[in-house]
Write a structure and sequence with these properties.
- The protein is α/β, with parallel strands linked by helices.
- The chain has a domain of 72 residues.
- It is 38% helix and 17% strand.
- This is NAD kinase.
- It comes from Actinospica durhamensis.
Length: 124
C-alpha cells in the first residue's frame, strides 16, 4: 500500500515565544524590557526569521501531501513513520537531536538565521 508522503516539520520554541510564556504577553515583556533599558529587537528579528522559514517550508510542501509538526520538547512522544520526510527548522544541534528519534528517514536542515551560526548540517 502506497501512502501519500508526510512531511514533518521540527522546530524549537523561539526566544520570543518563551518570553511570552514566562511574561504572559509580548506587551508585558516589552514593558519590562523598556523599564530595564533592554531592547528586544534582536529577539523579535530572530522570531520573524524563524516564522518566515516555517512559512516557506509549509508553502513548499505539495498540497496533496500529509503534514506534521512537532516542537523539540515533544520529540520523545512523537511517532515518526518510516516514510516521513523530516524538515528541521533550526540550528545544527536540533538537527542532530532529531536524528536520535529516526530510523533512516531523510532529514532536511533549514537554518532560519543563515550566517549567524557555525553550522554545517543546516546551511540553507
Amino acid at each position: 500500500m502506497s501512502l501519500v508522503p508526510r512531511v514533518v516539520v521540527v522546530h524549537r520554541r523561539t526566544e520570543r515565544e518563551q518570553i511570552v510564556r514566562e511574561r504572559g504577553t509580548w506587551g508585558q515583556a516589552k514593558f519590562q524590557a523598556k523599564a530595564a533599558s533592554v531592547s528586544l529587537s534582536a529577539v523579535e528579528a530572530r522570531h520573524s526569521a524563524t516564522d518566515r522559514a516555517l512559512q516557506a517550508v509549509s508553502s513548499a510542501v505539495p498540497g496533496t501531501w500529509r503534514r506534521g509538526a512537532v516542537e523539540r520538547e515533544d520529540l520523545d512522544r512523537f511517532l515518526f513513520e518510516p516514510e516521513d520526510i523530516v524538515v528541521v527548522v533550526g540550528q545544527d544541534g536540533l538537527a542532530a537531536n532529531v536524528a536520535k528519534y529516526l530510523s533512516g528517514q531523510p532529514v532536511i536542515g533549514i537554518d532560519p538565521n543563515p550566517g549567524t551560526g557555525l553550522g554545517v548540517l543546516a546551511r540553507h
